[in-house]
Amino acid sequence: LVQLVESGGGSVQAGGSLRLSCAASGYLVSSNCMAWFRQAPGKEREGFATSYEGGHATEYTDSVKGRFTISQDNANNVMYLQMNNLKPEDTAMYYCAAGTPRPWVDCPGRFRNKDYTYWGQGTQVTVSS
C-alpha cells in the first residue's frame, strides 16, 4: 500500500514562509518522479514543481520559480517544499504526487495530473494580503 501524507500547511501573511512535508510509505521518493501540485478554488489542479534523480534535479513553473524549493530527505523517505515570499495567489490546497517507476530521463516536464499515480490528501495554504 502506497501512502503519501502532506503536512505543514496553514495561514500566513503575504511575504511569509511555510514548509510542507510529504511523508511516503510503501514507496521510495529517492527512486521515482515526484511533484507538487496545487488547486485553488474554482480552478484545475496544477503542477508547479517536480523532483527527480533522488531530489538532485528539480523543475519549477514561472509562477513559483525563485520562491519555492523542493528538497528530499531520502533516508527518511520525505519530500519537502519550502515556500518563501508567499503571495495571496498562492492560496490553494497543496498536494504531493508520486509517479510509477520509470527512468529519470522520463521525469522532466511532468506537470500533468495524469503523469502521477499516487496522491496525498492535501494540505491547505492560505496567504492573506
Characterise this structure.
This protein has strands at residues 3-7, 10-13, 18-25, 34-39, 46-52, 57-60, 68-73, 78-83, 92-98, 118-119, 123-128. It has 129 residues and is mostly beta strands. Strands 2, 4, 5, 6, 9, 10 and 11 form a seven-stranded mixed β-sheet that branches. Helices cover 0% and strands 47% of the residues.
**Terminal-residue CA separation:** 40 Å
β content, as a range?
A: over 45%
Counted beta strands:
11
- Report mean pLDDT, rounded to a whole number: 96
Shape: globular
Largest beta-sheet details = 7 strands, mixed
Low-confidence stretches: none
**Structural class computed from helices and strand pairing:** mainly beta
> What string gives the helices and strands in order?
EEEEEEEEEEE
**Quaternary state of the chains:** single chain
Summarize the amount of helix as a percent range: under 10%
The whole-angstrom Rg is 14 Å
What is the overall number of helices? 0
